[in-house]
Amino acid sequence: MSKHILMVVTTADKMNEDHKTGLWLSEFGEAFVEFSRLGYNITVASPLGGKAPVDDRSLEGDTPQEILDTAKYLENTLKLDEIKDASSFDAIFLPGGHGTMFDLPDNGKLQEIVRDVYEADKVVAAVCHGPAGLVGVKLTDGSNLVAGKAVTAFTDEEERETTLDQYMPFLLESRMRELGADFVAKSNWTDHIQVAGNLITGQNPQSTVSVAKEVIKKLS
Q1: So what's the pLDDT on residue 1?
Q2: All domains of the chain, ordered by start, with CATH?
Q3: Residue 74 CB: number of other CB atoms within 10 A?
Q4: Ramachandran sector of residue 207 (left: φ over 0; alpha: ψ -120 to 50; beta: rest)
């Protein structure tokens, strides 16, 4: 039977009136391609549904055509509230982009889905700013999902290097540490993932494929 992956992307398109943002395309596209190669069934959802905004900066440079082609799957995303039962998903994957910092942390439906997937002993994965979707998740016993677990995400140092830290509602590394996570940071822009049971996190865009392959490993 084919595995079913839920990919949740941001629908926040700006940090403030002067700075646009959105999804970092490679973090969605690279994982989508890895899952598609194995014939996985992929559902793409977002807080608002409809078209997910792509951060223009993620299109700079030499982006492979197969990654650009995945943008068509962002044209009409499913609204998270329309997911009535998370039991059909074998894994949830949260790609990043600065938009996630604005609409994922406080999304109650996302928190519910992540909790249900995790407590069903299924895979929860996130990369770069995607772990912003994990910071509000509490397990049934009231504990924070990330508490006591080895995790990583876009680091405070990487955020400062982008100079976008001044526009963020919080710094992701700092917040995860505050929640009791055992946060592990490597050098800026290093391909780095952490695996804590069925919780898989990646530090930055360079870590996307490694996270996706670890998800595949868990599912196989």
Answers
A1: 73
A2: 4-219 (3.40.50.880)
A3: 23
A4: alpha
Note the Cα 157 to chain centre separation in Å: 19
User: Could you please report the per-residue DSSP string of 49-89?
Assistant: -BPPPBPGGGGSS---HHHHGGGGGGSSBEEGGG---GGG-
- C-alpha dihedral over 140, 6, 52, 106, to 10 degrees? 0
Please, are residues 4 and 40 in contact by the beta-carbon 8 Å criterion? yes
The conformation of residue 203, written as its DSSP 8-state character, comes to S
Q: How far is CA 15 from the centre of its chain?
A: 18
pLDDT at site 85: 93
**Which segments within 55-203 are labelled E, that is strand?**
78-79, 91-94, 123-127, 150-151, 182-183, 193-196, 199-202
* CB-based burial, 161-174: b 16+ in 10 Å, e otherwise: eeebeebbeebbbe
204 by DSSP, 3-state: which? Answer: coil
Using a cut of 0.90, tell me whether the model's pTM lies above it: yes
SS3 (DSSP) at 135: coil
Helix (H) or strand (E) holding 15: strand 14-16
Give per-10-residue mean pLDDT for the chain (220 aa).
95 96 98 98 98 97 96 98 97 98 98 98 98 98 98 98 97 98 98 98 98 98
